[in-house]
Design brief:
With about 325 residues, this protein is α/β, with parallel strands linked by helices. About 25% of the residues lie in helices and about 20% in strands. The N terminus is likely disordered.
Length: about 325
Amino acid sequence: MPNDENNGNNILTDTFNRHHDYLRISLIDKCNHRCRYCMPSDLKTTYSKTQLMSPDEILSIAQIFVNHGVKKIRLTGGEPLVRKDFGEIVEKLSTLPVKLCLTTNGILLDRYFDVMKTTGLRSVNVSLDTLHKERFIHITQRDEFDKIYSNILQLVDEGFQVKVNVVVMKNVNDDELCDFVELTRELPLHIRFIEFMPFDGNAWSQNKVVNYAEMLTAISEKFDFEKLDDPAHSTSKKFRVKEYKGTFAFITTMSTPFCSDCNRLRITADGKMKNCLFSVNETDLLGPFREGQDLAPIIQACVLDKKAALGGQYDPTSMINRSMILIGG
């Protein structure tokens, strides 16, 4: 594997010279929400406990990635906090020299504030697609808005870095863009508007997508904002309304893909490696690991198979992929 002169580690590098130092690990395929754009209505099966990676397996596999240059790990799902051993997993991963992050729907966050603080997990992305309670119930099929919003405010009070992920869908919640931006007046939140993406069973169509340009135009009708610098490998285009405490940004996968600078790899809850969110091929890591095989060459081969963009699937109307809940947010 190519050598990184900065830290001496063998960095996972693909054929387009992209270095991968960010790993997203899905802990479970279950969720306590039923968002239609994420979970197909006919999804009835979930992985058994033996199909999921155990806390020790998660640590051991993550350690291999860290040995090869990974510096940041994000825990996702499904909803990662529904795993009863979430605290144990975080405690184990906190022994690695990485930045730990979490993506969650926020319902159960208050159970884990203490373990998150003691383990150094200070960066949390909370999925929240609407600020209207009745609309929230329609989108998620759950009545948990008040609990989630309270947990977001508590995260802020506790000094966590908080991003709010908003999947924007035409005629569903696209009329709330300015409401979300207004939250950043007094709260140091980082609102991220995400273009609606196609996954198995989520009834995606182009006419449901509100693209980056359309969202920016709508926001500009009410706010005077400035463009912020986007760091290397950023998936979002960042802005701030002048004098506001927070920021807002756009994840533009559908209209302006950011694949050329990608540094991300994924592991699904059942231990499959995806070198791209949209990759068709997946590489089994958990099976070979349980057989005692060396995962390093398996991981490198998967990285080398990474396509230039969008997993090689350039027509969003015919993409082949798992549902989002089975990949990990």
